[in-house]
Amino acid sequence: MLRIALLLLLVTSANVLAEETKAVDIYSQEQLLELIRSKQYLTRVKADDCQLVQDIEARAEVLKQPLYQYLWGEMLNFGICVKANPPRGISLLRDAAEQGSAEAMVRIAEYYKDGKFVLQDKERSVQYLLPAAANGDLPARMMLVELFAKGYGSPRDYVLGYHWLYNQVFSDEQTQQDAKRLLQLLAAKMPASQVEKAKNEHLQSR
């Protein structure tokens, strides 16, 4: 019995040690996208004890993968597991945006909207949001309509912004209600004929 107890103790101790030293796997594209969309990406990097810093850096700087450029850029912006370097962080976000990352476009737009790391420029924020919204990104469409409703951007684009958000499919009631409120604010700045045009499922050029 004593021998069995000792063996069990050894097995338990080995399992605990293995768990403590277990390597963390690099995030898949799907995992990283979900972490970004749920705004948990920096929390996850810290929770993983900064074990993936070199892997993340390589995928961003060498392989130039947009989602990893986003993650590495944000780690540099906020000094997560590395020394803070916002100039390089923002540059990486711009690189990701140029590769078509809607997430990066929205993040840069947020920074220009709030004046964080860059001088506040809500007109530039609109310019970053437009291509992301055109590609169906819901956060981009929400923020774009919000800025339009506050008078930023070109009135020529109001119909398009209204159209995108009005015809959006929503996954939760709260977001749908928020969108409805934003659309009401934007509609107040548009002629009734333009609002009706924007509500069409298929927007006509004329």
Biggest pleated-sheet summary: none
Structure summary, number of beta strands: 0
Uncertain runs with pLDDT below 50, 5 residues or more? 2-21
**N-C termini distance:** 87 Å
- Which percent range fits the helix content? 55-70%
Report strand %. under 5%
Task: Give the SSE string.
Answer: HHHHHHHHHHHH
Query: What is the rounded Rg?
Result: 23 Å
Shape: elongated
Continuous helix count: 12
Mean pLDDT: 90
Structural class by sheet pairing and helices: mainly alpha
What would a concise description of this structure say?
Helices cover 68% and strands 0% of the residues. With 206 residues, it is mainly α.
Explain how this protein is built.
This protein is 68% helix and 0% strand. It has 206 residues and is an all-alpha fold. The N terminus is likely disordered. Helix 5 packs antiparallel against helix 6 and helix 9 packs parallel to helix 11. The longest helix has 19 residues.
